[in-house]
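Researcher: Here's my situation. A collaborator sent me these components and asked whether they could plausibly form a single complex. I don't have experimental data yet, so a predicted model of the whole assembly would be a useful starting point for our discussion.
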Amino acid sequence: MTMPLGQFESVLGLYNYWVVIFLMMTGFYVVMARPNLIQKVVGLNIFQISVFLLYLTMGKVRGAATAPILLPGRTEYSNPLPSVLMLTAIVVGVATTSLALALIVRIRETYGTIEDDEIVAKDKQP
Amino acid sequence: MIDAHLPVLQIVIPLLTSPLCILVRANRRVMALVIATCWLVFAMSCRLLYLVSQQGAITYQLGGWPAPWGIEYRVDGLSALILLIVSGMGAIVITYAPTSVDREIPVEQQTLFYTLYLLSLTGLLGIVITGDLFNLFVFLEISSLSTYALISLGKHRRALVAAFQYLVMGTIGATFILIGIGLTYQITGGLNMADLASLLTQYTGDHATNRTVLVAFAFLSVGISLKMAVFPLHQWLPNAYTFAPSVVTAFLAATATKVSVYVLLRVTYTIFKPHFAFELMPLDVELMGLALIGILWSSTAAIFQQNLKRLLAFSSIAQIGYIVLGLSLASVGGVTASVLHIFNHALIKGGLFMATGCLALRLPSLDLKHLHGIGRRMPWTATAWAIGGLGLIGVPLTSGFVSKWYLIVSLLGTGTETNEWRLDHLAAVLVIGASLLAAIYVWRFVDVAFFREPTAEVEAATEAPLRMLLPTYFVIGLTLVFGVWPTLPTQLAAQAASAVIGSTH
């Protein structure tokens, strides 16, 4: 049985995008569902990194390489702009993560726990 | 000519002063430096507003690179007005700040506070002035990150949890915006807002079937709504406002969510155009519905709050609802009302939180049950709060009345030709009804402050120092001035609305 090429393309040809969506949803779920603050930060990181991947994927240019490439016969190249944008986004991500971790350290110092539900319970006590 | 470089100086000066603050270190000198910078920035935004009203939109190309390739700063009627509001409130709040900061923030962290304040202001101004979508994201993160840190400076340990919660929600919102920007870039290959507007016309016309554009728009609007604290996405706001230091709350309440509304105006009106956003996509009905539920729900929630700051925080969510309601009408009148309410609410809520900060200076707790009789011990502060509260209700002769009037007129005005019963008319009725709810929660403070016998801890309180009262009364006084003579803000708002709606043709 032969699969029509178009259908095959639309599943496997979008391989990167499947990975992006999978990572995005995983990260989003972890942020929302996990009570542990460190795990929330990990989820946030996965969520952000999926977006980096999205940008890098869209930077790929196939077949219409008009960039001045020295090596002959090259028709594939990466648009540098999305990569540059993601450098900035990575810096932002690092800053966010470090700030989040710093806050977690302070929360651990004052509450003695980094579990969301335990913090809420401690605040309910008079 | 210095005028030609004003747009970039507006950003560069505060951005470069903040690391300088860290180098200077000494608290008093840093304070003086930051206050001076804020007023300088305010003076520049006044000049920019004047120039824009004289000669129309100003563009500035960074590094001399022409627009679609380089980053462009663009100041039109709308951004000039928002710049004025943000820098003006920023300057007044920081002038008011030192006494409150001395009490609420440990000495060794005060330099950091002033630095972060300036960075946060820079980020907010940058969001408003930039004409480049990715640059907007970067400024959004500059302001957000410094805001998270500012909130965590609060005295109560719950400030840390509130800051963390805001960080998680804020980062999700910002990442949604980043996804939206990415998908838009994927389709058009552009990041400049004006360029995007023309590149997108072929996708946002009547046959808008390009799924990537639809998804990009959805991600952008949800992300911005999170930052704006529109009703179901507001959970981060009450805790953040309640546990942040008083000065930070006053600054954030007057500026941060307003700037996010500006971003939504830009994305829907300038980039994607109202035809796509409100006719092909149902954003108007969604926003109007959410705004109305938000107004009613949070006004009701505000009535049941025990803490004064938390009460005002819930009232802020309701007021965002009014602003969004105007925006969702997609008419010049609606946007004018929306922008006017951004202006008036920045003054009213800024003034109210400043008065609340005066109370926090003298009292250990801001729970209403600890405020009994405070109107007798701190009459000036309590009176300022009461006048601000009248503005919140929308009593005539206060500026809150003017913007609610404009909102109701434009709500009623949209259906006149068909004369049928529409959602807009229901909305107008609900706006008036919600003002009564506002009257109830404002009355709760007035009742406690003026009609109860002072408790022991209130007896010990003395009037707030002039250094804090004067800026508070300046802001509260402006709400009365613009309530009696609303010509200036109304003209500026109309100019802003025509700048943003005019760009759609």
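Model: Some features of this prediction you could bring to your collaborator: Chain B touches chain A at residues 134, 137-138, 141, 145, 148-149, 152, 157-158, 160-161, 163-164, 167-168, 171-172, 174-175, 178-179, 182, 185-186 (CB under 8 Å). The mean pLDDT of chain B is 90.
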